[in-house]
Amino acid sequence: MNTELQKPNYLISLASSGMIVHVEVNVWSATKQDKDISEEVTALKRADKDAGRFVKHLLAGDPTHKELLNFRQTVYNWVKRKTYDWAGPSRYLPLASLQSFKSEFNQIEEQHKELLDKFVQRYPDIIANMAFKQGDMFDANEYPSVDEMRDRFRINLYITDVPTGDFRNAIANDIAEDLKQHYQKETNDKIQEIMRDASVRLVDFIKRIANSCREVEPDANGKVRRPKVYETTLQQAKEHCNLLKDFNLTNDQRLEEMRVDLLNTIENITAEDIRDSDATRAHVKSEVDKIMSKFGI
Questions:
Q1: What's the pLDDT at 4?
Q2: Other beta carbons within 10 Å of 56
Q3: 135 and 23 in one domain?
């Protein structure tokens, strides 16, 4: 006897609440292993030829190239902050954040283009410089052309739906039930993981704000060096609170109450308010302390 396998509600909820995004940043490391030099060095040291390798840094630490390499990590840090773990480089993005995510990505693309333009403009001079810096190690053939170079530094955004897997084929009862249970468990586990991450992020914001408002004792010279409070921290905390208003896949009441309490505390507060007003700082500290006590943070 055959049956039809239905998609579980868990997955429908996850699929309708977000998208899968993948930001790919390609770079050219500008390093190359030199076999001849490696063999020369190991022979000189009377070592086995496989005992070491010599890697040439073709751009010898050029600052414009370093900026491009460092920018890749900046982008990945941004993606990690805005999304949740899904599978490898693929990340889960709440639908409520899609518009702002794409807008911020457009800005990142512009920054990347500016860095690449600056590097490419200097590229011919960099190669000429390397001819002097690398001496007999220099080989012009190891350097891509300007056009090839642009192709080696790319940034792309891929957005896809959450895969739902249409199991509308007739399957034997026992196989269908087994697959359905596995499907439900796997999806439910992913939902729980995403919401745990969302909760951890909220708690982290509460702790960071509490720390920035704490009272400190004067130093030996009588000066009070207060902890730094950053506008980006407050802004990101507000964004996360607003996101969780529409993105609470498990209907976690504790998470919702925590979100509301924090947003009510900081919604109309700026970093400048906390820095410049003892009363505001004390008020925020008192309120976040209440939140931490209430939820056992």
A1: 45
A2: 18
A3: yes
Of 108, 82, 94, nearest in space to 20 by CA: 94
Sign of CA dihedral 127, 129, 134, 139: positive
Structure tokens given for 257: 């109450």
Q: What share of the chain is helix, strand, coil (3-state, %, to 5)?
A: 60, 15, 25
Token couple for 241? 């609170």
Least Cα distance to 28 among 5, 8, 57 occurs for 57
Helix (H, G, I), strand (E, B), or coil: what is residue 31? strand
Residue 51 DSSP label: S
Same domain assignment for residues 194 and 81: no
Q: Which of 35-44, 57-66, 233-242, 282-291 has the lowest mean pLDDT?
A: 35-44
Q: Which of 116, 144, 161 is the last residue of a domain?
A: 161
The answer to whether residue 239 scores a pLDDT higher than 90 is yes
User: What pLDDT was estimated at residue 169?
Assistant: 36
Residue 271 phi, psi dihedral angles, 5° rounding: -60, -35
Q: Are residues 107 and 72 in the same domain?
A: yes
Q: How far apart are CA 236 and CA 119, in angstroms?
A: 32
Query: Which of 6, 13, 1, 26 is CA-nearest to residue 179?
Result: 6
Please check whether residues 210 and 267 belong to one and the same domain: yes
Domain of 78 in residue numbering reads as 19-28+63-161
Using CA atoms, how far residue 32 sits from 130, 132, 249, 256, in Å, is 14, 18, 48, 53
| One-letter amino acid for residue 58 of the chain | L
Q: Is the pLDDT at 55 greater than 70, yes or no?
A: no
Per-residue CA distances from 137 to 35, 46, 132 (Å): 12, 22, 10
Using alpha carbons, select from 209, 192, 62, 42 the residue that is nearest to residue 122.
62
The DSSP code for 261 is: H
Instruction: Report pTM.
Output: 0.69
* CA–CA distance, 82 with 149 (Å, rounded to integer): 30
